Structures are given as C-alpha cells and as structure tokens.
C-alpha cells in the first residue's frame, strides 16, 4: 500500500481543519487538499461571537480563528497540498482523488468541501456579479464606501453582513421576502437600533440592470401586492451595491452518483459515515439541522476519529 494515505481530507474549512488536527494527533498518515485559502465561508466573516471559549472582550474574526486552526494542523503533522480536485473515485478499498497536479490515494476519505452562496435569482444577475453584485461583505464592502447598498435576505448572515456594511455605505437597505426577520433576536435588536439600516418587507429582486456593466437599476416586486418598485442609482453615484445572503448550496457535484445525496447534501449517520464504506462527510455539505463553525468542527473531529477506526479494522 505504498503511497496510499490512511485518510484524505477534501477541504480546509473548519470541518476539514478539525479533521486534519485529529488525524494528525492520531498519527494517521493524512493528506489535506485545498484549492484556495483555508477557511471556506468563515474566512470572509468579519466578526464571530458564538464560538465557544473565545474572550467576550476581544473581537474574533473568521480569518483569525482559521489562522489558529491552520497552525494547529501544521503543528500536528497533517500533510498539505494545494490542488484543484477534478474527480473522485469513492468505491473500493482504495479511494482515489484526481487533481490538476496529480492523483492521490487513501484507505479512507473525508469530504469537507462545504457550500457556496445561493444566487439571488434575479434576471441579468450573472452579468453584474463583481460589478455591483457581491456575496461577501468582508471582501467587497470598501468598494461601496459612501454609496447606497441593498442586502437580500433576513437570516443571521444577511443581517450581520448588512450591519457590517453600514460602516462603509451611506445607506443600507435589507430586502426580505417576509414581513419579519429570521435572524436571532439579539441580532435583530442591534439591526433595528442601527440608524443606517432600512428595510423593504415582503419583497424580492426581480431584475437588475445598468449601462457599461455597472449595476445602476433594479426592479423589486412586493410579493403580496405585486407592485414593482424601480430603484435607480443616485446620479452622482452612478451605481449602487447589491449583496445576496439567502443561503447556500452544497459543493457536492463531484460526488453525484457515488454516494447518497438528498437535495444535494451528503447523507450521513451520527458518526459522519456515508453509505459507502470508508467515506465520511463533515461540515456544511452534510444534511443536518445546524450549520455553524462549532458544528463543522465537531463533524470534522468525529469523521477523523471514525476514519481511524475504519483503517484499524
């Protein structure tokens, strides 16, 4: 079994990093593969308040938390490689991962490739992504300094990101298809107390547009009355920003037809086992009731522990 790892971990978000930490500490011959920067979605979060054990008088950001996790993984000896995975072979005693830089084999595999932002779903959306439409406030807030900004969504992420944007934009308006927010009450209290935050209830974005590829117009429909409001950028500004935070889609296309999926999410038991022996899943790509940093990390720890037992049997 030369050149065959005990476990390959796909993805370096909180789930993958926790798996790498536990695999390294267990002295497994482990390989963690990530195509980009560590952290996944949490790497773009400006503030974290609900990760257990952090100091309440010290601000914690996604990048700072992930940096410490990555350092732990390195310290305990988990192998790392930067590569883009193009295919996987999950059946059989030896699992194979095909990347642009090479092929990797292991006795077991942990799928921790996370999820990505769900599109807003309006007409012409693709034309304006990166030209007024964004899905990451931490990444792009500074591009909208002193402009008007609109945020689609009503959950925790949408409201938190909207509040973050008020530190840059002249005015921020949350567009939500319901008549009340879904965010936690503590987050709502902060939002309603913010003088730069406004709300458009019972509304969805139907269409966006603009000249020369810059977002400058938007049609918003009231779902109860069907009344359409046309929003145009201030003449002096020439554009406005539109951020989408309406959920995520699992990054599981590579696994279709090989393991059990439900609405795109990987189905596992409580031990992170899929329906294929030696294949485990952890984090936001897994079918579960709560997707948070703490649950992703827990998933990764369980998956690595179960992968060790699988390899020892």
What does this structure look like?
The protein has 313 residues and is α/β, with parallel strands linked by helices. It has two domains: 4-116 and 249-312, 3-Layer(bba) Sandwich (FAD/NAD(P)-binding domain); 125-244, FAD/NAD(P)-binding domain. Helices cover 23% and strands 27% of the residues. The chain contains seven helices and 19 strands. The strands form five sheets. Strands 1, 2, 3, 4, 5, 6 and 19 form a seven-stranded mixed sheet that branches. A five-stranded parallel sheet has the order 8-15-9-10-11, with helices on one face. It has a three-stranded antiparallel sheet with strand order 12-13-14, with no helix packed on it. α6 (185-192) links the parallel β10 and β11 (197-200). α1 (14-25) packs parallel to α2 (62-75), α1 (14-25) packs parallel to α7 (293-312) and α5 runs parallel beside α6. The two termini are 16 Å apart. The relative contact order is 0.19. InterPro entries: FAD/NAD-bd_sf (IPR036188), FAD/NAD-binding_dom (IPR023753), Ferredoxin-NADP_redctase_2 (IPR050097), Pyr_nucl-diS_OxRdtase_2_AS (IPR008255), Thioredox_Rdtase (IPR005982). Pfam families: Pyr_redox_2 (PF07992). This is Thioredoxin reductase. Belongs to the class-II pyridine nucleotide-disulfide oxidoreductase family. Its EC number is 1.8.1.9.
């Amino acid at each position: 079994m030369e050149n065959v790892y005990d476990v390959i971990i796909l993805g370096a978000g909180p789930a993958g990093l926790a798996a790498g930490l536990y695999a390294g500490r267990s002295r497994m011959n482990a390989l963690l593969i990530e195509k980009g920067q560590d952290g996944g979605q949490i790497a773009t979060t400006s503030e974290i308040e609900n990760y257990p054990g952090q100091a309440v008088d010290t601000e914690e950001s996604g990048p700072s938390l992930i940096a410490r996790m990555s350092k732990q993984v390195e310290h305990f000896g988990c192998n790392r490689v930067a590569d883009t995975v193009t295919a996987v072979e999950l059946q059989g005693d030896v699992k194979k991962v095909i990347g642009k830089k090479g092929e990797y084999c292991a006795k077991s595999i942990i799928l921790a490739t996370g999820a990505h932002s769900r599109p807003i779903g309006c007409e012409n959306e693709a034309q304006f992504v990166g030209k007024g439409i964004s899905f990451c406030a931490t990444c792009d807030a500074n591009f909208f300094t002193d402009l008007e900004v609109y945020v689609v969504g009503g959950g925790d992420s949408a409201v938190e990101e909207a509040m973050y944007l008020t530190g840059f934009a002249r005015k921020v308006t949350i567009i939500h298809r319901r008549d009340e927010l879904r965010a936690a009450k503590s987050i709502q209290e902060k939002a309603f107390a913010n003088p730069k935050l406004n709300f458009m209830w019972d509304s969805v974005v139907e269409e966006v547009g603009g000249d020369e590829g810059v977002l400058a117009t938007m049609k918003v429909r009231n779902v109860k009355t069907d009344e359409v409001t046309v929003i145009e950028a201030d003449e002096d500004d020439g554009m406005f920003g539109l951020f989408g935070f309406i959920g995520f889609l699992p990054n599981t296309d590579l696994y279709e037809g090989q393991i059990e999926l439900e609405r795109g999410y990987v189905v596992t038991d409580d031990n992170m086992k899929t329906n294929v022996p030696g294949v485990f899943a952890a984090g936001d790509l897994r079918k579960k009731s709560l997707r948070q940093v703490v649950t992703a990390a827990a998933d990764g720890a369980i998956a690595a522990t179960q992968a060790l037992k699988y390899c020892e049997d």
